[in-house]
# Entry
Amino acid sequence: MASERELLMHLENLSVNYRTRRGWVSAVDDVTMDIYKGEVLGLVGESGSGKSTLGKALMRLNPRSARVTGKLMFLGEDLMTYSNAQMRRIRGDRISMVFQDPMTSLNPIQRIVNHITETIRTHQPQTPESEAVNRAKELVDVLGISDNRLDDYPHQLSGGMRQRIMIALGLALNADLIIADEATTSLDVIVEAQFMALLKDLCREFNLTILLITHNIGLVAQLADRVAVMYAGRLAEVGPVETIFKDPQHPYTRGLLGAVPTILLDDHEELYRMEGSPPDLIAPPPGCRFHPRCKHAMDVCKIETPVFKPIENGNATSCWLYDDIPAEFTGELLVSAQEVVGT
# Structure
């Protein structure tokens, strides 16, 4: 991560709600978070926690049925105030996205070279065709693909190659922020390892800023500088990758990490199993949304929403274990942070 921690993007009270036949789905709820230049920020959480919705909101790609509120401060300007025409100039040029499945993002009847040159010339129409082609060759060369594959169609490439082409599209315009949404889901473990090594090299070479949205905790441990943990549309905990993995504070973060298999488990040790399921986001529980599954839940957790704020170990979290309990609940026995960490 960049040592000066220069702010690239600030999300302030960002909320995304979808209208459905059953009612409004609270997919992202009041998220405030910073993204710094030159860092890899891992965004993790269970399916349905709002990770992809948040990633698309940063580019204002949510469907028309979505109601989006809050601020998206990008290099000091609020993207929420931008027109659709202004956002089209931002997408790809300043903020780009690597989607989960390349085969649904790449045009099956368009050659690879045309995907890249079209991206370049759409945003930089003054660029000659020959220069755009040369840039495409340079990009695939950096990504370890022979330039003679530029004339191929997407179906002629392997899954790993197609994913690299998606990265090439993200790099084509030197975007300030790359959002990688489950970019390794379709890859086998060998190709995934190569992909991780490639991203590390690209981060060093181009000083990339990446929002890495993933279920893969191991990928985050190897690549990320900081980690943001989402649960049911809200941020549970954010902190440096070392602190999150060694000293997680929120009960959900601990449960999420405890459910990851490691070679350190002995033959008789079982993985942690988190009871229950994520809540219905049309009618989420009041207070802390994790309280129905939390063994440390108190009465205050069921009524009042905890404030997301920094805590002593350097992370930020939203949990009543680390907040001042309102006067009407002060008669409760507050479980200490040390007891939670020791569970």
